[in-house]
Design brief:
The chain is α/β, with parallel strands linked by helices and about 450 residues long. It is built from 7 helices and 22 strands. α5 links the parallel β5 and β6. The longest helix is centred in the N-terminal third of the chain and has 21 residues. It is globular and about 60 Å long. The two termini are about 35 Å apart.
Length: about 450
Amino acid sequence: MKLRQRSIFTAIAAAAVLVLGTGRMALSDSLGATTPSSISAAAAAAATAGCGKTPTLRSGSQTITTSGKNRSWILRIPDNYDNNRPYRLIFAYHWLNGTAQIVDTGGSDGSVWAYYGLKQLSNNSTIFIAPQGINNGWGNSNGEDLTFTDDVLKRVESDLCVDTSQRFAMGWSYGGAMSFAEACARPTIFRAVAVYSGAQLSGCNGGTQPVAYMGIHGIHDSVLNISQGRSLRDRFVSNNGCTPTNPREPSQGSLTHIITAYQGCRAGYPVVWAAFDGDHTPSPNDGSTSTSGARTWTTAEVWKFFTQFQSNASPSPSPSASPSSSPSASPSASPSASPSASPSPSASPSGGSGACRVSATVNAWNNGLTENLTITNTGSSAVNGWSLAFTLPSGQTITGGWNATYSPTSGQVTARNMSYNGSLAPGASTEVGFQATHTGNAAKPTAFTLNGSPCTVA
């Protein structure tokens, strides 16, 4: 990963100079609809035409004719796909001189980094799409890349069951620029975007409506200066009605990152800014100048950001539900190397009969793992606020998590609900998870208690 990224820095920097000099989006870096005047923060999950149909699409490479050109893209459909279940959908755009294939396979980092690491965390809950840019970039000439995305989405939704309130876009560098262009031009289509080390290179048609926004950028990015990433962020700080501020960023040499959730944002439209001590990369590692898709903190943080948005949520999660930093009087957040930087849970747990079931799925590699936990209320009354306790096997240490706060990070751990998933009706489930390092033992916990009562382990 590191060598591949470095090999493209010079080409990206040269292209960036051309963009700045001409005002056109001509960058090809390695690693553009009319919108209604009002937007619902929490659209109900509409059934797409593909719901209930036997699909004709299959996972793998696809082609489509759009804007008079033959374009390619890769589709990944969840295993055991259920055509009556609306699925989350994520577009993952490649970088300049990158390819859809590298996004799909994870490149030299392997499957752990496929779709910027999110596929391994999805636990078959998400449809993934990796589009291929013209000349391996996203120049978006006359909006052709926006139209390409539109046409792919129409094709997918006509054949597969998609949750229309759960569409997301993400990408690094030029891919980040394209994700930003989607946020500008398609605010009623995409629920949220994650822009890694981006700049305004693919245009911003519109750009006046709110979209949930996460920006990630290195403080000494030698290709696309962090000031360009801040500029993209600030557009949505304004659009989303957040309180303007200059969030705290790590100092050079600290080898850490700081995540800030903006305060005052319009309900359902959070803005999160993650600055790290590093250069132009989507996979920085705390405590090291190296990059690795298997060890980066960005995967868990982006997954947390996307999965905070629940279908049919009314009202939508407020900005305080952002999983990145604790709400406080100050908009600055502490470095989130520890999962304790997540928001505080809602009120003390109460209610419920104590009956519960937990299923755990582990995906392990070398010295790391992710674990997805599904918590089901099998009791006869609702649970209002929950704490799930379990013991991590020896040698495992949590480095990040999603949809819950985790404390401490090893040994006897307690996962506590976020503000948007604390209520579990009888028979209802919620999915949480974490990323961890290990020293050889990648086993899952053997016992769980919910609000102090033992759970059945599925």
